[in-house]
């Protein structure tokens, strides 16, 4: 049977090039690629990798579950996850779960049937009971209590940082606004970090939260604006939340940052073209994505991980709202 | 051998429910789903669909090729494409080609090896020579001359509409600004429609374009602003382009819309939270996405299509820049 070396010789390229073509890792010029593939056909060469996958039915596909790809944070995340998977020779299957349990469970089935090698992403349903500890799943933000590896930005530190930056910008009575998901989510730590730091520094503060999903957004903001018209700082759970506060408060003549300093969380604005450019706690999206993939591939290969939760440091990015 | 009816009876549900579970179409309560799957296992029932796929090695996977999912227009497109594919029982494989030919060609190989049932998306490389007419590929925006079915917004009408709206808003000397891709792209029609309508109406106008990709964005805009300081309207090839023009012109004291009316193309702002809210030619993204999938599935099923290019009507969405 022909070897990879025979293919390289016939194609007139290095063995490494043949391997790159077979595994689709790294750049290969189209015409070089063509030559290699012709040599493979001519020699009827079966790459070990392919042969092994065929024998073991090993999938080179990873599913990404997201509430919706149509969101700047999730699409940036998906971009880097696909890029990192591609480097490892894996393909990405995208699923907008829309928070629908049956759709998320379907992908769990595919995993159990080895149709996909692993799952990464964000799920908002408590599908924990359907999974076991060693299954190759890496969760982003969401904690499956103690069972599933989780990669997240350091939300608690982000909350502390948000409070400190508001105070530094001159706020004397800052408020945290956001929602509380049904199942435990890392995002709660943004609030807890904010409260912890306020107490540490002895800063008077307000926490205004409602259950997620919000039934009436209008009501949320008008109630907040009515009940807490003396606050001079807002730390919003997300950038979108911050932008919505600014939009509504401006209708009441509240000026940002003159009257109220505002800080969001995520860093969805990757250019300064639309205003206000939010001051925000920037999620390390690229590092979260690549870390998630690297951990997943370790799990796929049966390697043990040293932790359950991997927290990636966040940074404050000053915009026009503080 | 057990039938789907046996499964339904044992699970105590309707046959339709069993079918929905098998094909993952429509919503099924998790516990109902569980019951059905247990019945399937207990009876060792093999769904025809599964059996058929197994026999024919028919893939239920479709690849989506995009330059980058990390772009608001592409992520909205991907959202609706995944949703429509899901309704048809297909899974979506996402590829950020980044315009890399070897990556796009790899997915063509998968298609030829029946690892994927079809390909949809936007490619910027001339991979036409590698495909034949009947291959299940549907292109968005990009034309593979005469070979591949293409779904696009009506860019020519969009260009005409843009010119008319600028004139209606008071512009006497509007300009088109944009880039010209190496391979033919539907986006060219935005310029051509703009010029056509300007000539029709006898409107003095400017066309300022450079080859894509832009080598020096700064230079592009400063040259345009220097050479054409008498224009009072701008129709930009994309929203991002429009926003960049506004950002740079404002530094020269040019006020939008007072001095210059600006219209973009795409409609990437799906909320009014960040400003300026661009006046724009809104792409019918959802309809483009669902049409693309419906046409692809017809091709997968070997049905003949009545056209090569499907143009979806666009609308003008007034913002704060006209």
UniProtKB/TrEMBL annotation, chains A, B:
InterPro entries: HTH_LacI, LacI/GalR-like_sensor, Lambda_DNA-bd_dom_sf, Peripla_BP_I. Residues 2-56 form the HTH lacI-type domain. Pfam families: LacI, Peripla_BP_3. Transmembrane segments: none annotated. Keywords: DNA-binding, Repressor, Transcription, Transcription regulation. PANTHER family: LACI-RELATED TRANSCRIPTIONAL REPRESSOR, RIBOSE OPERON REPRESSOR. This is LacI family transcriptional regulator. It comes from Paenibacillus harenae.
């Amino acid at each position: 049977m022909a070897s990879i070396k025979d293919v390289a010789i016939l194609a007139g390229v290095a063995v490494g090039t043949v391997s790159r073509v077979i595994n689709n890792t790294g750049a290969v010029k189209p015409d070089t690629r063509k030559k290699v593939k012709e040599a493979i056909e001519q020699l009827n060469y079966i790459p070990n990798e392919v042969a092994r996958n065929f024998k073991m039915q090993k999938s080179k596909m990873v599913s990404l579950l997201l509430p919706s790809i149509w969101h700047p944070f999730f699409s940036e995340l998906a971009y880097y996850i696909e890029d990192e998977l591609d480097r490892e020779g894996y393909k990405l299957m995208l699923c907008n779960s829309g928070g629908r349990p049956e759709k998320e469970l379907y992908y769990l089935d595919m995993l159990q049937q080895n149709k996909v090698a692993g799952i990464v992403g964000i799920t908002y349903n408590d599908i924990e009971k359907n999974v076991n500890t060693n299954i190759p799943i890496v969760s982003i933000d969401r904690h499956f209590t103690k069972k599933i590896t989780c990669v997240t930005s350091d939300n608690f530190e982000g909350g502390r940082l948000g409070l400190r930056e508001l105070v530094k910008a001159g706020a004397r009575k800052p408020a945290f606004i956001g929602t509380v998901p049904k199942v435990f989510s890392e995002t709660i730590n943004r609030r807890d970090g904010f409260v912890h730091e306020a107490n540490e520094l002895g800063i008077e503060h307000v926490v205004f939260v409602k259950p997620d999903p919000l039934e009436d957004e209008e009501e949320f903001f008008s109630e907040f604006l009515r009940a807490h018209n003396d606050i001079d700082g807002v730390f919003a759970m997300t950038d979108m939340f911050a932008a919505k506060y600014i939009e509504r408060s401006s209708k009441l003549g509240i000026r940002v940052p003159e009257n109220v300093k505002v800080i969001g969380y995520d860093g969805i604005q990757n250019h300064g073209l639309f205003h206000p450019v939010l001051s925000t706690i920037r999620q390390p999206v690229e590092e979260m994505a690549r870390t998630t993939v690297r951990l997943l591939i370790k799990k796929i290969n049966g390697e043990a991980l040293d932790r359950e939760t991997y927290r990636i440091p966040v940074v404050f990015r000053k915009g026009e709202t503080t």
